[in-house]
Design a protein that fits this description.
By secondary structure, the chain is an alpha+beta fold. It has helices spanning 12-35, 54-60, 133-140, 207-211, 217-233, 249-258, 322-340, 348-367, 375-384, 394-409, 413-429, 431-441, and strands at 97-99, 102-104, 124-126, 129-131, 162-163, 170-171, 197-198, 204-205, 213-214, 244-247, 272-275, 280-286, 289-291, 294-296, 299-304, 313-317, 320-321. The chain contains 12 helices and 17 strands. The strands form 8 sheets. Strands 10-16-11 form a 3-stranded mixed sheet. Bound molecules: zinc ion (5 copies). This is LIM zinc-binding domain-containing protein.
Length: 446
């Protein structure tokens, strides 16, 4: 039985353009592979060792399907000694094809992706594995996780995309400017098939973060107690009863402005505050309900905070997942602790650095209990580690790892730089000695 070379005949006007586009795309993939390592700043797309095998397949094209006997080169002549690399059976008669020194029955030359025979004249090679061109594109051309389309090529003809350093969420660069919502907590972009919840103050929250979100002041009290217990477990008990309120973004920003000796280094987004002035703050009294993609029915209440000690209150943004809320609480409570214990006028890098260390340590006891050698803190974490709905889900666990990653990799000098320096000191000398040294000198021990 003769096996005929399959030719795909296309009408020139209609199909040649799509064929050309496909070639341009293959070209772009190949060039992106070559260029990716040379492009600082742009997150690159890389497939190890993979390449499009244009030169190879071109050289194979004419003799690849030897039709009948005469014009076939010597080494393609059928003989009983050839073994099909697909089915491992002898190739006795009929057609076969050679590829990279191996031989196949036509029906055994199959795409590594879909497993079906490759009958087209052109195919893609990755290492020694052949693919249908379309299967290779499906496999290798990155798809956007926001709009779910193939990521387009840029003006230079390269596939350029953004990729979140922790979540590895890949997306078209255009979504950074087309009002695609970003979760205020985990930073992931909203995908077009999964709408986020609007918190009503310009922030959006994804469903994973919403799962453990803390929505009102009453809701947050048990977590606040757990954080205070965590401090106590490290011999940093606070005797004063400092009120803690959950607030909207607007209220938090206003309170920050109302602080006379406020941070000079106010970050762009404020997550929490340790108040030292007497102020009237509007807090969230009753949690809102979720209606559609919004929150409805929230009740707030203005509250005048009077000074009973050097710290008047701790404020935290509402609507954040439990682990992030706790991390913020630990940071702000550490500011309070420093103030109440008489640490004054620390430079922001030292102060916020050590506050971030407390935040990080608390997350550590929640996310990986027993990791640090902190017997007292670890025993506390077992009682406080389960969230309101019982044990932590794997999504919540991953979120906790993200918050730790964020603290450790923050690029600002006071938060990120401060954390890395303070954490190094704590790892070397322990928390107590580090704090004593800060108390005496205002600086971290070297
Ligand atoms: Zn075979
Ligand atoms: Zn295939
Ligand atoms: Zn996209
Ligand atoms: Zn989120
Ligand atoms: Zn701070």
């Amino acid at each position: 039985m003769a096996w005929r070379v399959p030719f795909i005949i296309r009408s020139v006007d209609e199909h040649s353009r799509t064929l050309k586009e496909k070639e341009e795309l293959d070209d772009a993939i190949a060039r992106s592979l070559a260029e990716v390592s040379k492009r600082p700043g742009a997150y690159g797309w890389k497939e190890k060792d993979d390449e499009l095998a244009r030169p190879l397949q071109d050289s194979l094209k004419p003799p690849i399907w030897p039709p009948y006997a005469p014009p076939v080169p010597q080494y393609y002549r059928p003989s009983g000694t050839r073994i099909c690399d697909g089915c491992k059976q002898d190739i006795h008669y009929g057609n076969y094809l050679g590829c990279m020194g191996t031989f196949f029955h036509p029906q055994c030359f199959c795409c590594r992706s879909c497993g079906r025979p490759i009958v087209e004249n052109e195919f893609s090679l990755s290492g020694r594995d052949p693919y249908h061109k379309s299967c290779f594109k499906e496999l290798a051309h990155p798809k956007c996780e926001v709009c779910h389309q193939f990521i387009p090529t840029n003006r230079a003809g390269l596939i350029e995309y953004r990729c979140h350093p922790f979540w590895s969420q890949k997306y078209c660069p255009s979504h950074e400017h087309d009002n695609t919502a970003r979760c205020c907590s985990c930073e992931r972009l909203e995908s077009w098939d999964a709408r986020y919840i609007s918190l009503g103050d310009g922030r959006s929250l994804c469903f994973e973060c919403l799962e453990s979100a803390i929505m009102d002041t009453g809701d947050c009290q048990s977590l606040y107690h757990a954080i205070r217990d965590f401090f106590e477990g490290m011999n940093m008990k606070l005797d004063q009863q400092i009120p803690m309120l959950l607030v909207e973004r607007q209220a938090l920003n206003e309170a920050a402005v109302g602080e006379k000796n406020g941070h000079h280094h106010m970050p762009k987004t404020i997550w929490g505050l340790c108040l030292t002035e007497e102020q009237t703050v509007t807090s969230i009294l009753k949690r809102p309900r979720i209606g559609g993609h919004q929150l409805i029915g929230m009740r707030t209440q203005p509250q005048t905070l009077t000074r009973r000690c050097a710290v008047t209150a701790i404020l935290v943004l509402f609507g954040l997942p439990r682990l992030l809320t706790g991390a913020i609480l630990a940071h702000e409570l550490m500011h309070g602790w420093l103030r109440l214990k008489g640490y004054r006028n620390l430079n922001p890098e030292v102060e916020d650095g050590i506050c971030e260390v407390l935040s990080y340590m608390w997350l550590e006891t929640e996310v990986m209990p027993g990791f640090r050698n902190m017997p007292s803190a670890a025993s506390i974490s077992t009682s406080s580690s389960s969230s309101k709905r019982g044990g932590k889900s794997s999504a919540e666990q991953k979120l906790g790892e993200f918050f730790m990653h964020k603290i450790a990799n923050d690029s600002s000098s006071s938060y990120g730089g401060g954390f890395r320096a303070a954490n190094a000191a704590v790892n070397k000398y322990g928390l107590r000695r580090t704090l004593d040294h800060i108390g005496m000198t205002g600086n971290l021990p070297l």
